[in-house]
Amino acid sequence: MTIEKESPISRITIKPEKCTVCRSCEIACSYHFKKEFNPKISQIKIIFDPKSADLRISQENGCDLCKNEKSPLCVKYCVRGALNAEKVE
Amino acid sequence: MDTYGWIGKFLRIDLSKNKITIDSSKKLLKRFIGGRGVGQWLLFDQVSPNTQALHPDNLLVFSSGVLTGTMAPASCRMSIDTKNVLTGGVLSSNVGGHFGPELKFAGFDFLVIQGSSDRPVFLDIKDEHAEIKDASHLWGRSTWETEDIVRKDQGDLSIRVASIGVAGENLAKPACVIVDRARAAGRGGCGAVLGSKKLKAIAVKGTQPINIAKPEKFMNEVEKIWNKIDSNKSVETRRSLGTRAALPFSNELGFMGVKNFQDDYWNPQKIKRVSQKQLNSNFEIRKLACFNCPIHCSHLYRIPQQTDSDLISEGFQLNVDWDFGGKIDITDGEALLKINTLCNQLGLDLDNSSAPIAWAFELYEKGIIGKNDTNGLDLIWGDADVVTTLLHKIAEREGLGKILAEGSLRASKIIGRGSEKYVSHIKGQDSIEALRSDKGWLLGCITSARGGGHLDGAFQTHKTPGAGEPDSYDSKAEKVFWFERFKAIVDMMGVCYFATVWSDKDLIGPDDFSRLFSTATGISMSGNDLMRTGQIVRNVEKGFNTLHAGFKRSDDYPPERFFKEPIVSGPNKDRILSKEGVDHMLDEYYALHGWDKETGWQTTKCLDELELNEVKEQLCSTKKLME
Question: Which terminal residue of chain A has fewer beta carbons within 10 Å of its beta carbon, N or C?
C-alpha cells in the first residue's frame, strides 16, 4: 500500500505487514502537532482487530509530513520499517 | 494545567454504594510517584490487617506509571495492587498492552475500587467519566468473548478491556486479569479479587492529552534511549524470538525446573522440539508489541484447526516453557501455544495454575494420589490433554480442580498424606522458579514481597557485573538490594522491565529514568532520589506483609526440598542449597535494609531514615517493630 501526499519533499509509504501495532507513530504524530501525547489528534491511525487479525493503517488529511523535522516522526519511531519516508523525484 | 507526566486524577469507585468520585492528591504523587508506589501506599493506608483478600473491604488499585502513555520507550505498563489472595500479604501485579496508556488518555492515572456489587457489573470509562453497568450478559464468558462483546456493543475496536474469565468469577486462587487478550496481571490471584467484587471487566477509551513539562528536552532524552535500545544486540534477539530466545541457554544455567522440580535440567532434545523458530516458521503472521515498545517481543500466530475457524492467538513467553514444558514435560510447541491461549481465555495465571498441576502429577507418579482423587484422570507427565482438562476444572472449581484452585500449599493441607513435601511455594504462593543454581535468582525470589517471583530483586548472575559466581552465596545481597529498589522505580514509571538494565546492562538505568522523569514532570529527582523512593515503597510493602500476614524471617526461605534434593542431571548436577549459605545471604540482605536479623522485621532506625512514620506507628502498636 502506498499513500502519496502532495508534498515536494516526500511521501510516506506503508507496509502493514511489518506493523507491530505499538502505536508509537500515533503519539509521535501528536507530539509533532501539539507537543503532547494523544492518539486522538494523530494524523496516522492504527486500527487492529485481534479477533480477525485485520489491521488498518490510515494517514489522515492533516498530515504535513513533519516539515520542520529531518524526517516524519512517525517514520523515525517505527522500528520495523512499516512506515517509510520516500523522496519524490 | 499544572500537572505534567501525570494526569493528576484518581477515579474512585465504591461498588457497594454504587458511587463514583474523582479527586487528586499531588502530595501522594510527589511521595510515591505513580504506578505501584501509589497503589501500595493506598493499600497500606486504607486496608485493615483484619480484612480478607476476597472481602468487599479489600481495595483494588489500577495504576498507570508517570511515564505510561508517553513517548518514553516501552511506556505501556500498569500495576494492579491489592491484598494477595494466596499469601494474605501484599500484591502488586503488573501488565503491559494498551490499557494503562488508555486509562491516562481517558483522564485518570489511578482507578481505586472498593466495595462489592450484588450483581455482575462492568465499569465503562470514557473521557473523565465513568459508569457502572450491568454485566449479566458477560458473566460466564471467556475474557476473549468479553472483550469482543464490549467492543462490538459500542462499535469501537479501539476500546481497551481488562477482564476476568470464569476462573475469576469462581474465585479460583490462580485467577488473573487479562488485558488485550494475551496480557496478564498474573500472580497473587487479583482475578479472584475482581470476581469477589462481581466486577467482570473494565472498559476504557480516551481522547485526552498527556502533557509534558519540558517537551523538547523530554524528546531529546527519549531519542537517546530509543537509539540505545534500537542498537542493542540482546534486543535484536528478543525481537525475533521473544524471551524464549533464552530457553536453551537458561536450561544450561539451571533455570528450568523439571517434573515439579525433581530436576533443574530439561533434556536438550525436548527443548529443540518446542523451539520458537519452528513456531514462527509454521504459524507467525506478524510481530506484535505492547504500546510504544521498540522491543516488540511478542508474535501473532494463526493456527489451522480441524474444525471451526483458525485459531488466532499471541505467542507465549519463556515462563510457559518453565510452567508446562519443563515442569510438566510437555514437548509439543503447538500444545504449549494452545494451553497458553486457554489460560488467557479462562483468566488463569499460567504460573499459579501450572504449579498445582505439576505438583499433582508428581503425587500421582509417587502413588500418593490415585484415580479416585483425580476423577479418573491418568496424570502422566507430558499429557497436554489431561492438563487442558485440569485447567478447565480449576477454573470451574470442579472435582480435583476445586482442590488445585486453592494453590498447592492449601491443596496439600486438604490432601495430606505427606503431599506437602512436594509443594514449591514462597510465603504461600506457588513458586515457579528453579532455585538451586543461581543464588542471585534465589535470594531475589525468596525475599520478594508478593511471595516468590523473579521480577523484583532477582537477577541472573552471569549477566550482572560484580555479582560473582552464580553458585556462590557471596555478592548477591547487595545486588538484590539494588534491583528491588530499581524495579520499584520501573513500576512507578510504568515502563517494561525488559527495556532496562535488568535485561541488559546497556539499557535503561536509574539516571535515564531520572532525566525522563524530571523533563516529563518538571520535578527534579536524581537517580539516587528515585532509588530512595524505591526503598520507601519496598518498606511500605514489608510493613504490610508484617501486619497483614505476620511474615518474618522464617517466611524468607526457599522450599525445604531444595535443601534435601540435589539437581540430578546437566551442567549443574549435584547442586543443592545449604542453610548456611541462605542464612549468610539473608543476614547481609537484612543488614543492607537496616532490618532486624533475628526476626526479619523492620527497625525504628530504618523507618525513621525513610520518614515512614505511618508504617512505624502501626508496627509499634502491634509490637512488630525492632529497635
Answer: C
Probe site for chain A from B4, B77, B292, B345 (most A CB atoms < 10 A): B292
CATH number at residue B42: 3.60.9.10
Give the domain extent around A83.
Answer: 2-87
**What is the tally of structural domains in chain A?**
1
ipTM above threshold 0.90 = yes
Query: Read out DSSP for B161-225?
Result: EEE--HHHHTT-TTB-EEETTTEEE-GGGHHHHHHHTTEEEEEEE--PPEE-SSHHHHHHHHHHH
CB contact under 8 A, A20 and B312: no
Query: pLDDT tens, B229-272?
Result: 999 999 999 998 989 999 999 999 999 999 999 999 999 999 99
Is there a domain that residue B626 lies in? Answer: no
CB contact under 8 A, B300 and A53: yes
Q: Which positions in chain B have a beta carbon within 8 angstroms of at least one beta carbon in chain A?
A: 69-71, 98, 105, 144, 147-148, 157-158, 180-181, 206-212, 215, 219, 226, 230, 285-294, 296, 300, 302, 312
Q: Are residues B424 and B455 in the same domain?
A: no
CATH code for position A33: 3.30.70.20
CA distance B303 to B582: 46
- Of how many residues is chain A composed? 89
Give the domain CATH number at B611: 1.10.599.10
Task: Please give the tally of structural domains in chain B.
Answer: 3
Low-confidence ranges of chain B (pLDDT < 70): 1
- Residue B292 has its nearest CB partner, among A22, A35, A51, at A22
Q: Which domain holds residue B288?
A: 242-429
Please report where in the chains the cell 557471596 appears, as a residue: B474
Taking CA–CA distances from B105, the nearest residue in chain A reads A38
Contacting residues of A for B287, CB less than 8 Å apart: 18, 20, 80
pTM of the full structure: 0.97
Dist CA B118 CA B432 (whole Å):
35
